């Protein structure tokens, strides 16, 4: 889902253009406030992904369904009776998250992250600006592989979508553990790098 392909139709477009497009897509996802606008943006981004040669739509959209269902459950549990149109809120929120994932998938599929980091270094941006970008896009593919492995292991164990709460728990708990573990490894590596520079 989040892996660079040098064969993408848009891989030759300049990094500045792609960063600007990513920023505009993310801004549109947050600014659009109705279902029709969000659905149009999703159709546009899906069309761009398809034109770029991306074929991982099933993994892109189905991989986040458990998290969307959990968020929807939270909306209905905590916001019920507050005078908010919960159907509209959940539809817009779900489409917004799908748009964010689609824009990120398009960016990472068509952009070599090392060239982005090099451009940020050439622009004399501080390490605190470009390092999080590198870490984010460097470890998204690993988290994606971990999620696929967890889903496969749970399927082998017989935990399927027929029991949604058990299924969500069996995926969320290991993913949170893996994310925290990777975060610790990154923090330790960054600390040791800084310490070596100061010595």
Fold and architecture overview:
The chain crosses the membrane at residues 20-52, 59-78, 98-117. 78% of the residues lie in helices and 0% in strands. With 199 residues, it is an all-alpha fold. It folds into 2 domains: 1-111, no CATH class; 113-199, no CATH class. The model has no long low-confidence stretch (mean pLDDT 81).
List the helices and strands and how they pair.
Blueprint (H helix, E strand, L loop, with lengths): L14 H17 L3 H18 L4 H6 L2 H14 L7 H25 L2 H10 L4 H30 L7 H35 L1
Helix pairs in contact: 1-5, 2-5, 4-5, 6-7, 7-8
**Element-by-element helix/strand order:** HHHHHHHH
Low-confidence stretches: none
Mean pLDDT over all positions: 81
Distance separating the two termini: 40 Å
Based on secondary structure, the structural category is mainly alpha
Main pleated-sheet profile: none
Secondary structure tally, helices: 8
Q: How many domains comprise the coordinates?
A: 2
Would you count the extended β strands for me? Answer: 0
Shape: globular
* Percent strand: under 5%
Assembly state (oligomeric)? single chain
What Rg, in angstroms, do the CA atoms define?
A: 19 Å
Helicity level? over 70%
Quick summary of this structure?
With 199 residues, the chain is an all-alpha fold. It has helices at residues 15-31, 35-52, 57-62, 65-78, 86-110, 113-122, 127-156, 164-198.
